[in-house]
Fold this protein.
Amino acid sequence: MNTPQALVVEDDRDLSLIFSQALRSAGFAVETVNTAIDAITWLTDFIPQVVTLDLHLQQTKGDEILRYIRAEPRLAQVNVILTTADAAMADALSDQADYVLIKPISFTQLRDLTARLKTLF
Amino acid sequence: MSLRVKSLLVAALTTVILLVTFLVFTRFILTNSYTQLEQKDTTAHVERAVNALTNDLATLSRTANDYAAWDDTYNFMESRDPAYLETNYPDATFINSRLNLVTLVDTQGNIVFAKAVDLEQGQEIPVTPEMLDAVSHNQALLRPAQSLSSTVGLLRLPTGPLLVAVQPILTGNGTGPTHGALLMGRTLTADEIKRLGEVTQLTLAIQLPGEALPPEAQAAVTALSAQQPIVVRPVNEQLVQGYTWLTDINDQPVFLLRVDRARDIYQQGQATLSYLVLVLVLGGLIIGSVLAWMLQRTVISRLGRLNREVQVIGASSDLSQRVSLQGQDELGSLAAEMNRMLGSLENTQRLLRQREREAITLLDSIPAYAFFKDAAGRYVVANQKFCETLQRTREEVAGKTDYDFYPPERAERYRIDDFYVTERGETYEVSEETIGQEPNAIVLATKKVPLKDESGQAIGLIGLAFDITDRKRAAQELAVARDQALAALRFKSQLLANVSHDLRTPIGAILGFAEMLQSGIYGPLLEQQVEPLARIIMNSQQLGRLVSDLLDQARLDAGKLMLRCGPFAPTELIESIKASAGLNARDKAIELIGVVDPNAPLEITGDYERVHQVVLNLVDNAIRFTDKGSVTVRLSGVDATHYAIQVSDTGRGIVVDEQALVFEAFQQGSVQAQGRYKGLGLGLSIVKQLVALMGGEVKLDSQVGQGTTFTVVLPLSPETKEQR
């Protein structure tokens, strides 16, 4: 069985590093992008098991990526974890996401969550 | 017609009626009395005339008796000696004794001697056969010839009435037997009547039957009867006539005797009556004048004065004046009563004016346009403020209608409002009416209240119009201010959200790297590095929670906090709490005990993160305010739909006064404790709001010095939220 893949969409370099490390600790092969275009470009070639999605990206809003994933049947099995500091937006999109984590997000919290997800596959 | 004229008329009329009545009765009585007197007098004179005639007859009878009861005559009737006749019955004897006829009749009724003389010519005239016939065939005349009785009376002859006396012929001693009868007759001529009149001093007349009677005599003859033998008739004002029948020797009425008398008595009566009328009229005039004068003086002139004075007072409307009439009678009392009433009226008027002044003062003091209107919509009185707006005086406004002041459509609108109030008797209100154009427009709030009389009928209205322009503007300004305040609040919430968001990212980075260090990703830690790293993590988490609290408060304020529900196990919750708060408890050497009761549910559906937040807040709080002992977290079942989480400490407790305040934002313990503990004071406030949002409730039970227990009761699932 191949190592499951995870995509971290986060424009903050520090958080991107922490989220990647947490996912790697949980046993995922991690790809990081910091723009929505890069994310969607990557998603056209790969099907990850988990995507952590920051809703506040510099250029594009994270919810467009969420809409793209949900509109794409190929990506139906993807677990989307919204990571945001904006609880209001998280509330608005919580129906479409599988999980919502409000920043600050604990390293161990993300690691433990994704570790649990990994066992489901 | 004035009272004076009326009373004078009454006095005059009364006097005249009295006079006339008196005069009519007097005239009737007097005339009657005098007429009766005249009747009696005239009757007496008639009787006197008859007596004079009777006396004449008696004289004639005595003369006849002188010749009849005489021996010479007696002897002659036997001897028939002519010498006796020549000696005793010459013409001179006839003339002296005023005899017209002498006859001697024997006992068989044969005429022995008869001689007639015309006394006017003084010579013998032949005895007419009619005369002899009348004498020899009359039984009454012949009776003395056979008896001792005599006969006296009147005899009707064709030549005129004849006084006759028949005596039986006897001896000189008056003894019989009778040798016949002697008759002497005297013709009742005009001269004889005249003579009788002279003797009796009366004007007499004799009328024979068959002579044409004048009309007044005719009436008298008709009235004569056995019951009324004498009739008196006035002929004119000067003459009265008395009538009576004279009967002949056969008791047959043959001559009508008339006595004429001057009407002296009647004239006297009339004169008396005239004097009486004169006296009465003069007396009546005097009495009437005196009566009128006294009436005028005592009643009418005073009444007139009273009337004039009352009229003057009435015309001037000056109730301070009084009537001057004095007196102890009814008029005086009337004047006194009038003065009393005037006094009472004056008082009432003064009181009324005072009330009016009070009402106007009240109206003027009202900070509104105020007025009274009558039922026809006319202004009765308006206050100063209203009059100033109309630029009219109060007197100019009175009696006018809205049509005199306002454009027709506005006046019409007011008229309809007024009609509603007076017709229905109900209060009418217009809460807002804008008059004029901006920026000079004013806004009025008007109230019209019906004014009712004693029977409840609306007789007008009271109108009050308040100028609410300033209030209106203030309200608008207030609304603007409120909008601004709300905008500021929104801005604050947004700022809070933004700040906390921007704080979260670096906190997340600090926490993340510290945790990665702790988990040995960057290599094993030295023993002395473990503790400082744990403290970095704990403080970062605390900072993260503070930022979360701020954000949560902002979302709660905006009503934007949403719950994300899912299943979780009570044990998971309690273990996580112990892990999160364990370090803090250990630092203060406080035992942190987590208990899941045997009756606790196996699974709960709810927002795990929020429940976790609530319990951790309470536990952090309990640790913060407990210096020694323990903090216990206990999860237990309440009923089929609810569970409870109790957080108990052995801290110093909360005084009763502060218990109600602990759930308020930015309150934290007592004043003495301030500065000693960390935190914003938002924790318990957020707990209360979150619990409420989840459909539960939070209570506290605390005793100072013994500790505090917070109890949170929550529904087992969101669907059962409403059941409690």
About this structure: The radius of gyration of chain B is 81 Å. Residues 15 and 284 of chain B are 6 Å apart (CA to CA). The interface with chain A takes residues 497, 500-502, 504-509, 511-513, 515-516, 519, 521, 540-541, 544, 547-548, 551-552, 555, 560-562, 564, 609 of chain B (CB under 8 Å).
